[in-house]
Recover the amino acids of this structure.
């Protein structure tokens, strides 16, 4: 497993770096960004994995969220992968919510997607292995994401509480089997049999969860996608029924953008740091 | 003077908004962004004008600098104009450092540029008039910028200490008459007579300044443009000779990017706030 450095920028006393590598799981070249806080020059640090939303790359969160200031204070590394396999040989679609930039953090089983769209295994296995082999990090991991990436963080976290100390999300798709984004993507990537969809639905997974992995969610009340796509009340209902330790805040007047994420990312990083120690 | 709202995003309890208006000075439609801190809903607040660098629009600083967090705490509005006139009827050049995205905050006198490229007057007169007519702001103004925008902030500030309380810059072009970026742009916009260039050169203006407008500059030591384009030592020499109150910090290992700006923007905002009160 070799990685190629693409960029390095000093930031808040640490380093923001981008790398490219050949992914064996996705069968294509992939890019990721890592922020190494100043503490990483002297000791191993824990890692927060950030999963971005539709249309994003490894860059959006690192450039727009203002997270590195707090990561530098707390001594936490941040890793941001791309949101799908990429490249001329990778299946794609003209729509923004399918194909490249829209991997939905699942393992596709249907043609033409299954050859590359294995983001679930990439995020869960290959990426942490790569990071832990190449950078001064511990095996303490947390997981966070936005929108489609919030869906990724919740589903991967709920299925693997052994691998993560905490999960958080902004504006996550909590019930993809019951919203247009999820139904479209799952039909394409997983086929029409809805039984196969249940393994990638945060509400369904929380119903079956026997873990108490801490979960923290922020949702804007003025998010354009709130009622049709995001529906946090579905997850709240499951959490109540299960007495699951979910913290979900409805933030008055905030929308789906990185302006919302930037406003509250500090709370998320402090939440993760309290579990990563 | 009418303005049209293009976007509104709640951020750190205040609002980030973009507007479009027909500029009488630039003779084209212009866009700007404004951040109104939460305090602006109850009282008038002072304004920091931010001038961006080559290739930027009104968006780069607002999305990448992490400034709104501190502006919200300090009760300072931020206004970010575009970096040049724009549009199909506006003269342009294929190079990134001339034409649209590269207005250099001056009043062009040469064809084909002079019909629209009057960014100096736009920033000094039309924009503050517009802002003060339409938003809950005081007439306390400060000025800051990056690279070409640092040049803009320094030159406009040094010529109009009556209009601004303080000036700051990241990686400014302090001596454009003696660097390739400046020489290329000034030849095109102002003609070959170097006498006309002196009015837009921070070193020359500081030599003649009779003001003590506070100036604060951060410069990265690993900036790719440091030796050929930026040459802060030229301004330091003038400040020493004149005993001008210049604070210039060389930041070890930092480059020309917004990762550098994000790291130190808090210091700049606190500097301005101390003068804007």
């Amino acid at each position: 497993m070799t990685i190629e450095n693409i960029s390095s920028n000093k930031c808040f006393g640490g380093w923001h770096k981008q790398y490219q590598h050949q992914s064996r799981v996705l069968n294509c070249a992939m890019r990721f960004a890592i922020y190494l806080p100043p503490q990483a020059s002297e000791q191993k640090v824990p890692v927060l994995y950030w999963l971005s939303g539709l249309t994003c790359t490894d860059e959006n969160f690192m450039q727009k969220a203002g997270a590195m200031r707090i990561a530098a204070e707390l001594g936490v590394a941040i890793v941001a992968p791309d949101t799908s396999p990429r490249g001329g040989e990778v299946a794609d679609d003209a729509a923004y919510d399918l194909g490249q930039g829209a991997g939905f953090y699942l393992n596709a089983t249907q043609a033409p997607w299954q050859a590359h769209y294995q983001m679930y295994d990439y995020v869960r296995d290959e990426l942490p292995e790569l990071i832990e082999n190449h950078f001064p990090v511990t095996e303490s991991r947390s997981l966070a994401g936005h929108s489609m990436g919030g869906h990724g963080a919740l589903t991967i976290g709920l299925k693997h509480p052994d691998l993560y100390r905490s999960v958080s999300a902004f504006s996550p798709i909590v019930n993809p089997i019951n919203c247009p984004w999820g139904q479209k993507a799952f039909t394409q990537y997983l086929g029409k049999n809805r039984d196969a969809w249940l393994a990638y639905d945060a509400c369904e997974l929380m119903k079956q969860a026997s873990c108490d992995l801490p979960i923290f969610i922020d949702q804007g009340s003025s998010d354009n996608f709130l009622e049709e796509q995001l529906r946090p009340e579905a997850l709240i209902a499951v959490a109540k029924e299960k007495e699951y330790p979910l913290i979900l805040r409805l933030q008055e007047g905030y929308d789906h953008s990185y302006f919302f994420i930037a406003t509250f990312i500090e709370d998320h990083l402090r939440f993760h740091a309290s579990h990563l120690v």
In short: The mean pLDDT of chain B is 97. Residues 258-276 of chain B form the longest helix (19 residues).
